[in-house]
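REVIEWER CHECKLIST
Item 1: Sequence provided? yes
Item 2: Single chain? yes
Item 3: Sequence as submitted:
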Amino acid sequence: MNRLWVRLSLAIGLAVILVALFPHLWRIINPPPETPFRPGMAEGLSDQQFTELRLMIRERENRIWINLSWALLAGALMGLMVGVLLSRGLVAPLRRLEQAARAISEGDLTHRVPLQGSQEFRAVGHSFNQMAQELQRAESLRKNLLADVAHELRHPIHIVQGNLQAILDGVYPLEMQEIAGLVDETQQLAALVNDLHELAQTEAQQLPLFKQELDLVELTAKTVEAFQPLAAAQEIQLSLEIPPQAILVAVDADRMRQVLKNLLNNALQHTPAGGAVSVSLQRAGTGVELRVQDSGSGIDPEHLGHVFDRFYRADPSRSRQSGGAGLGLAIARAIIQAHGGEIEAQSEGKGRGSVFVVRL
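Item 4: Structure as written out by the authors:
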């Protein structure tokens, strides 16, 4: 009784029945006159003829009302049947949506709703399918995140554990060189855990920012200068284009430096020897725009929307030594968004370089 189609059927049937009963109700409220003749019509008739004529007219009227009643009753029943069919057809998309929602709640994220019915139902179904697709993508990223975190943690842990066991067994000598290697691995572990902690803080909107007005030109110049030896060692030309005047912006200096370092690391990792990386800073309207461009491997169009995802790798075979943990760009986006800015990746395709643009 609480089903929507039942309610609609009853409402439609009740409306049809009320329409069918209206003439009878009207006849009860406003009964016809006892004498169905206008003045002067019964002149010249005897009393018996007058009575017979009146009875005949009454009988004909009753027959008409009976036929009309049956016709209205049949119409009411047909209307009720049409109402049932119509209401079931109207709620069918809702029933499919209910089944799809139950399937999603049970873990079947591949379930989709067929786009049928009126424009409104199609719009709801399209929105539901988009939601299911995003949930499926988020679940896939969650599983990949767990697998990648386990992989990134397992590698240095195995190295530390193996080297320590070798030292205990006397295979490796207890020398400063071995200890330095172990320290490097623990630093990688600490950096990964710190990156994950920062991402968790930004997603919870709890990343602490200590904003102060500083010269973004000076910060950019010093950060790029610190990367010059690394670029030279990789035989990559690193250039800088900045305006002569200062650009004062209220930002967290350490976080902005971290963003630029992550972008430069990413550019140098994906640029082969003999390539070039350029950094430019300029005013853009009422804001400022920072661009990091490289002539490296580039990004396929289908990967552009995912380069800022955690642990996302356009090439699944990329190793941690050649590609890093895959958190640098995710952290950069989180920091920029925490500053109220935006960051985007641009590329014309594989092998044609890429550009990362930061707007504040």
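Item 5: Key structural point noted by reviewer: The CA atoms of residues 26 and 200 lie 73 Å apart.
Item 6: Recommendation: ____
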